Structures are given as structure tokens and as C-alpha cells.
UniProtKB/TrEMBL annotation:
GO terms for biological process: polysaccharide biosynthetic process. This is Putative PLP-dependent enzyme possibly involved in cell wall biogenesis. Belongs to the DegT/DnrJ/EryC1 family. Keywords: Pyridoxal phosphate. It holds the Pfam family DegT_DnrJ_EryC1. It comes from Saccharomonospora marina XMU15. The modification N6-(pyridoxal phosphate)lysine is found at K183.
């Protein structure tokens, strides 16, 4: 790594390399046994939900919204404090995205704001587990149910965590994961959709594979021949190959160790910055067992930008997560305006992600703490 500390980094060891090599030496590179094994591993982790492995976290969101039947005229209520894909994948299907404000402390979707945003046209309420902290999923399920909508949990940050004793992936109608290199486990690029609904699972699997229908009992022209397959609704090729699924299964075996190390580093930052009056350290709600993906420091009094520049100049790769989604010009051009979600905009103005990944050493974390403290004269 040299002297530059990235804010996130993959954790790959010889076990991961061996798992990938075994697939490369076998008969299947894609759509084979490693895919089924990885999906089964995800089902075990999430206590029984059916899993659909896909090519990215963005693909997972697209597949989940498609499985939910999202289309023109439908509304999706979600948080603006997320990566743009949480909203853009719904918009690409023709939905109107309705942004509801976040809780000032966690950056997660505020159930009261979501309740005020739902209408009879709401088809999905999409919560985001910001930084790894689970959203208020019980209350949000009630909010979604009040309009007959599905609850989607964008758990790109939170695989391995739990909320009130239940694992992430078991709480919503649809849960999406991301396995990008900087996430809590990686398949290089990749993602997954998890659901307990047999119908949603079937629709997700079809959308992932071009919408192909191969079961003769479901085909319109089943007597065409043994080779026959049909498309009843458009889908895309979002299949995650065996070689990457093998990496995913190997990574899942280390997920608990990754979680412990992230917790240790998160606590070290908390302790080292506790007396710095110019910042606020992250909060943990009662009932949350957090898989910390980000260390989201809050920097007060307009000092976020100067601190960002200061740390970057010292070779510390801090990041900002995220610009409110509706600030992006693509949403501005659709009529969204700044000021829509004041809590989210205030959160963004203060947010700074410090380096956090399992291989980060205590000494490197202390270097980050010392650099923040020195900036403020401590």
C-alpha cells in the first residue's frame, strides 16, 4: 500500500486465490456449481431467503425492482443519502423516485418522513443501511404495508449485521447486497438479491437471465422441441460467473473475522476522537449489531472540506459518502431541487469517511486519528 491509506480495500488471501484457481481448472467458468454453492451460502447466512447472485450491487437493485413489477406510473420512496444506483435503477424502469429525509444521527431513512411520502402509487419503500447500520426496518415495514408496498433493504453496506436479533437479509421483502472490492466481502464486482417470496425469487431469477422461460409447464409453445426456450418479459444478462462466486464463498467464510476487525477499528476511532469538540462520531441504535462498512465522521462548522484536503495531502484517502442523490444533474433535469431533504443535505455537508478495512493496522488507524486531532489543534 505504501504510505497512502485508501478509505477501503479488498481483503484477499491464499484461500481466496485457491478457490478461484480451482474453478479455472474445472469445467465451469459460469452458470455452474460455484454459483449454486454461493447462493446456498447466502441463503444460510440470511436464514432461509432464496438468493440470486448477480453482476453488481446495481444489478441487484435493478433485478429487485423488476421482480417487484416496478414500471411507469409507480412510485419508489427512498433515501437520498446513498449511491445513485438505489434511485436510478428504479427510474430506469419508469418509476417516479420520491425522496424522503433521513434521521440526523444515522443517515438512514426516517420512518416518519417515509410515512409522509407514501401514496396509493407507492410500490416499494427502499431503505438503505447507511455505513452498515441497519435502518429502522420494523417501522419501515409498517410504513410500506400501509400503502400495500414492498419493503426493499439496500444492504450494500451491511451484510453480516443484524437488527433486533435478526440477520440482515431476513427482514425485508427484498434485500440487495453489493460485493464490490471495498465492501464487507468481495467478488471483485458482484451482488445478490435475497427474498423469502417464491414469486419474487422466480421473477428475479428470470430477469437475471434475459427473462428466459425453460420450464415446459410455463411455456406458451411447449411442444417446439427439447431446445426450446421463451422470453415472456424482457430481462438482462446479470449472471455472476462461477469464478467470482467461488471467491464469494471463500470470502463468506471470513465474514465474522472481517466484522470483528471492523468493530475494533471503529471503536479505536471512537476512542481517539471522543474529546474532539469539532467532530461527531457515529451512533449505534439499540438493537443494532452493526457490520461497519464506513466510519462516517461528522465534521462541524464548515470544516469538512478543509479537513478533507488536509488529510488527502497527508496521504490519507478519506472520502465523502454521499452527495444527496437528487443533487445529480440527471435528477435536477427531472425537476428535483436542492432543499428537498434538509437533514440529508446537512449530513452530507458534514460527512467524511475515514479509512476502514480489515487489514488496516492499529498504527495506521492511530495515524488517521493523530492527523484529525492535529488539524483541530489537539
Amino acid at each position: 500500500m505504501g504510505d497512502f491509506l485508501p478509505y477501503g480495500r479488498q481483503s484477499i488471501n491464499e484461500e481466496d486465490i485457491a478457490a478461484v484457481t480451482e474453478v479455472l481448472r474445472g469445467d465451469w467458468l459460469t452458470t455452474g456449481p460455484a454459483v449454486s454453492r454461493f447462493e446456498a451460502d447466502l441463503e444460510e447466512l440470511t436464514e432461509g431467503g432464496g438468493a440470486v447472485a448477480v453482476t453488481s450491487g446495481t444489478a441487484a437493485l435493478h433485478v429487485a425492482y423488476a421482480a417487484a413489477g416496478i414500471g411507469a406510473g409507480d412510485e419508489v420512496v427512498t433515501s437520498p443519502m446513498t449511491f445513485v444506483a438505489t434511485a436510478s435503477t428504479a427510474a430506469l424502469l419508469g418509476a417516479k423516485v420520491v425522496f424522503a429525509d433521513v434521521e440526523p444521527e444515522t443517515g438512514n431513512l426516517d420512518p416518519a418522513a417515509a410515512r409522509a411520502a407514501v401514496t396509493e402509487r407507492t410500490r416499494v419503500v427502499a431503505a438503505v443501511d447507511y455505513a452498515g447500520h441497519p435502518a429502522e426496518l420494523d417501522e419501515l415495514r409498517t410504513v410500506a404495508g400501509s400503502s400495500g408496498a414492498l419493503l426493499l433493504e439496500d444492504a450494500a453496506h451491511s451484510i453480516g449485521g443484524s437488527w433486533r436479533g435478526r440477520p440482515v437479509g431476513s427482514l425485508a421483502d427484498l434485500t440487495t447486497f453489493s460485493f464490490f472490492a471495498t465492501k464487507n466481502l468481495t467478488t471483485a464486482e458482484g451482488g445478490a438479491v435475497v427474498t423469502r417470496s417464491a414469486d419474487l425469487l422466480r421473477r428475479a431469477r428470470q430477469f437475471r437471465n434475459h427473462g428466459l422461460v425453460r420450464d415446459r409447464t410455463d411455456q406458451r409453445y411447449p411442444d417446439e422441441g427439447g431446445w426450446h426456450q421463451e422470453v415472456h418479459a424482457f430481462g438482462l444478462n446479470y449472471r455472476l460467473p462461477d469464478v467470482l462466486c467461488a471467491l464469494g464463498s471463500a470470502q463468506l467464510r471470513k465474514l465474522a473475522a472481517f466484522k470483528r476487525r471492523r468493530e475494533q477499528l471503529h471503536a479505536r476511532y471512537d476512542k481517539g476522537l471522543a474529546d474532539v469538540a469539532e467532530v461527531r462520531t457515529p451512533v449505534t441504535r439499540e438493537g443494532a449489531d452493526v457490520m461497519w462498512h464506513l466510519y462516517a465522521l461528522r465534521v462541524l462548522d464548515g470544516q469538512r472540506g478543509p479537513l478533507y484536503d488536509h488529510l488527502r495531502a497527508l496521504g490519507i484517502g478519506v472520502q465523502v459518502n454521499y452527495i444527496p442523490v437528487y443533487w445529480h444533474p440527471v435528477f435536477e433535469d427531472l425537476g428535483y431541487r436542492r432543499g428537498l431533504c434538509p437533514n440529508a443535505e446537512r449530513f452530507y455537508a458534514q460527512q467524511l469517511s475515514l479509512p476502514l478495512f480489515p487489514e488496516l493496522t492499529d498504527a495506521e488507524a492511530d495515524r488517521v486519528v493523530d492527523a484529525v486531532r492535529s488539524f483541530f489543534g489537539y
